[in-house]
User: What shape does this take?
Amino acid sequence: MRRIEKGVTIEGGAGVGRITRPGLAMPVGEAAINPGPRQQIADAVHRAAQQNGYNGGFSVTISVKDGEALAAQTYNGHLGIVGGISILGTSGIVEPMSEKALVDTIRLELDSLYAQGQRIAFLCPGNYGADFARDTLGLDLERAVKCSNFIGEAFDHAAYCGYPEILLVGHAGKLVKMAAGVMNTHSSVADARQEIFTAHAALEWRTARNTRRTDGRHLGGRVRGAAGRSESASARPVAHWQGDGNPHRPAHEGAGARGIHHVYRKIRRAGRVSGARALCERLKLQ
Assistant: This one.
C-alpha cells in the first residue's frame, strides 16, 4: 500500500487473477477482485486513515501467496480468469461449499458465455455428457456449462439471460427424470427412474402394439425387462437393451417390457435427430 493524493485504488498483485472475458462482475483487463471485497477494503482503509488523521488517498495492491497454483484447482480458467485466484464474497465470512454456491457458479458461467455472444445454452450435467459431447459430437467444452443436478436452475437462468435455444447433453439415467418433471435430479431429491420408464412404457405400448411386425420381431431389437419382477432397484436396471436384432423374447417378457423397448429406442434415436445435430453444428460456428 502507498499514499496517493486522494481516493482509494485497488490493484491485483502476484497470485490474483486477471479478467479476460466479458460477463463477470468486473470489466476485461481488471484484477479479479469483486465489487464486494473492493468496497470492504476501501472502507477499512478510510477508517484507518480517519483514526490517524490522514486525509489523503491510498493505492492498495492485493497479493495472494501461491495464488496461481491454487487457481488451477478452481473454475477460474473456464470463466476467463487467468494468472491467479479471484477475490470474492460480500461478508468476509467463509462458508462451506453449498448448493447456492454451485447454482451461482452456473449462473455466472451462463452470463459470461452470453456476454461473449453465444446464443445456444450448452449444458452438461456431468462428465458422461461432457465426454460424449467432446468425443462424439465434436463440441468445444469451453462453451459448455456443467450444471450438475441443477438442470431446472440452469434452464431458468438461460431463459432469463435470453438464450433462444438450449442444448442438453447427458446420461439417460439422469435425464429420464425430466420426463416426470424432476428438475433437480439428485437422488436425495427425487429418483423414480424405474417408475418413469414403466409409466412411459405403458403409454408407448398402447400406441405401438398395433404397429409391430406380424413375425414377432419388434423394430429390430429386444429388451429383457425387469418390469413386474420383484428385484429391487439396486439389484438390476429396469431393462437392458440388446441391439443385435435377434428376435429373442424370454418367457417373462410381457407388454410392459416391450413398451420399455420403445422408450429405449427413442433415447437411442436422440443422437440422430436432425434438429439436435443442426443445433450442434450451429454451436460450433458461434
Q: What stands out?
A: The two ends are 43 Å apart (CA to CA). The CA atoms of residues 214 and 247 lie 12 Å apart. The chain has a mean pLDDT of 75.
